[in-house]
Design brief:
Rossmann fold; 5 strands; 199 residues; alpha/beta; single chain; 5-stranded mixed β-sheet
Length: 199
């Protein structure tokens, strides 16, 4: 089975940028989740993991290394696991394959390690630029948070998609931090959901 795996960082992103790929696949999966969440903890990542464990996947195609994740250790761990399973990983944006014609690519480990490190560094840079942008915005008189006069009742808050993801994650026994990563929200949002469930 040839599988295309896509990932976007937020629920607002549609994944339309992947439609330029006209290749034929047996299955196309799209996760809408942060790249900092471990591959095997993502909804579609779990689905793909089951297929791999059942020996149904021969090739996985991704647009770029960052779609697998933005944590160097996790990406390398996943790539090593896929290699042990004999799966060819194709990275479209640079034309790399881990096992072209079933033979291990000799430069695969080096290139994948470097690229995974670069994407993790890019994520750290994005976080830093966002933090600096917020600080400058506040220094120039901007206000962060919900506008004055607006409110959201508890029921509508708990019915939001992200809140439902948090509830499911907590019910599975995930920690507050893990639930936040799965839902793509801060730990304070997870704590708010948790406190409302107890109340």
């Amino acid at each position: 089975m040839r599988v295309k795996y896509n990932r976007v960082s937020t629920l607002n992103q549609s994944g339309n940028r992947f439609t330029a790929d006209n290749d034929n696949y047996d299955l196309i999966l799209l996760d809408k989740i942060s790249g900092s969440v471990s591959f095997k903890d993502r909804p579609r990542g779990k689905e793909l993991t089951k297929l791999i464990e059942n020996g149904k996947v021969t090739e996985i195609v991704c647009e770029e290394f960052s779609r697998l994740g933005r944590n160097t250790g996790d990406v390398i761990s996943v790539l090593n696991w896929l290699d042990e399973k004999g799966i060819n990983v194709v990275i479209r944006n640079n034309g790399l394959q881990s096992r072209p014609s079933g033979i291990k690519n000799p430069i695969w480990n080096m290139i994948s390690s470097v690229m995974a490190s670069l994407y993790q560094m890019e994520l750290e840079n994005i976080k830093e630029r966002t933090t600096v942008g917020r600080i400058v915005y506040v220094q120039n008189g901007g206000k962060l948070g919900r506008p004055k006069g607006t409110s959201e009742n508890q029921k509508s808050f708990l019915n939001k998609q992200s809140s439902q993801q948090i509830i499911k994650a907590l019910n599975k026994g995930l920690t507050v931090r893990e639930a936040g990563k799965v839902a793509g929200v801060s730990t304070s949002t997870v704590m708010k959901v948790k406190s409302l469930l107890v109340a």
